[in-house]
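Need tokens for this chain, all 390 residues.
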Amino acid sequence: MCAFLASTQVVYLQAQDWPQWQGPARDGSVPAASAPTAWPASYSRGWRVEVGEGYASPVVAGGRVFVHSRRDPDEIVTSLDLVTGNVVWQKRYSAAFSKNQYASGMAKGPNATPLAAGGRVFTLGVTGVLTAWDAATGAQVWRNDYSASIDTSNLFCGTAASPVLAGGLLIVQVGSDTKAGRILGLDPASGTPKWTWSGLGPGYGSPVVIAPDGVAQLAAITSGSIVGIDFTTGKQLWSMAFPDDWHENIVTPVWTGTALVVSGRRQGTHAFAIAKSGATWSVTETWKNDAVTMYMSTPVIGDGVVYGFSNKQKGQFVALDLKTGAVKWTTDGRQGEHASMLLTPAHLVTLTNNGEMQVARRGGGAFVADRKYTVADSATWAMPVVLAAI
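Here are the structure tokens for all 390 residues:
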């Protein structure tokens, strides 16, 4: 029913498709058809494959698992048979990368989760190397190298924004906090740029498609702001400041249907309404909660609640009222440094960096775990994948 990526392994149970960061809808939701009808009493590993280290989550398409990882100084792209775990193909390329002194204890990436679409797999490495691979054979279709725009001498920890398809274009975000940033709309068939947005260097969160007032557009987080972009032309529609002293805007913005929820380690958690009047877009803060700060973990939305993982109390799960931002419940803390979160129709699924997965009940007035599993024997920072049985 699930696939999990740790820093050194892929673990398989059973499956369907999961083509990008945060799943099919890019919002952390597991489709009802892919959710398990019952969670097993205990965890049982089906197969295990060493793939290297990294923060990129696996993606699944057409019966294959695709993993972007690292064996320093190379980055590696691996295609695995979903049922057997056998390596179908594996490619590697040089991606020498020197991390700044503030992050020397962390892995060197890759950070961005691949995108599987149209028979291709798109990977964006930590040094800004964007590659399109033939999903069936592993042949390189095209490559764009943006490494000249990457500077890690200060605080930047490398490219992290996961690619997304929007309006028929492949959207990527590159650059660094000292060399400014770009968001590019590319022809996915050739890698040819159709438009370029230039501005502040990228954050570490990924761009998402939102639709305020019914107008589909891209929301992206930079090192000091959040911007709305027409993904057909690259025109900036709106911008709002979201500064961080360390340029650590890591959380992917979350669209509620009426507002954009964003959070940061030093900024707290906020909701912003985005609206259009005539030709002018406006951004209005509807609520904020300074006490709840999310560092690396992207929240999920359901049941009128923002389910998140705060870095307070050495890591605690928290639920905020979607309309007001008020705290509905928190756990005691000491859960870890990071947690990935997904929503099935009945459960909140969490995976912490210590390899503990919990399956907790949605709704209610507290975090109640129906199941707990240890799914990795090494640190895992990548999002799990929940897939239907076949």
